[in-house]
Write a structure and sequence with these properties.
It is a single chain. The chain is α/β, with parallel strands linked by helices. It has 9 helices and 5 strands. GO terms for molecular function: ATP binding; dephospho-CoA kinase activity.
Length: 201
Amino acid sequence: MTMVVGLTGGIGSGKSTVADLFAQYDIDIIDADVVAREVVEPGTPGLNAIADKLGSDILLTDGTLNRSKLREAIFNDNSLKNWLNKLLHPMIREKMQADITRAQSPYCLLVIPLMVENNLQTMAHRLLVVDVDKKVQIARTQHRDQVNAEHVQKILAAQASRDERLAAADDVISNNGDSSELATKVAKLHQQYLAMSLQYK
């Protein structure tokens, strides 16, 4: 059995940057966002079910999912959004579980943005939270996504609070500083996780 470290954090916290630093140590990364795309690739039961429900015009000409059209469809329709979540969440979870069993590295990283919100830390042996000050989160997200502060505030309001995430965490990386500090923190945690992973062999 491979030790699973769950990685989460709010929007703009730097989850991807942290995951990339762990990947430099040849650690297998299982990313929920990537898996969510995989379960709706052409030919998958996920995409077939969506096309059956919403019609073939939910597909692009190459047969892939028209994501912006789907976003638009569920934006104003809560029942459709719930249907989609019921369809895809079990598929995503199953695929992540399968990827975990295939992991080759001493431990693997399970990256789920809404891990605490969906109580998915149960899939991991440890939970690592990337933590940042709210004002840093807002500034970073505004800069990255070219959106206004009000838009970011709305996203933050829909996510778990900083306190809720920290209460669930086993380990915390503070990411208010620069990237060189981050690399040092990841190096230290990597050694810690390597030592801990021995008990799962």
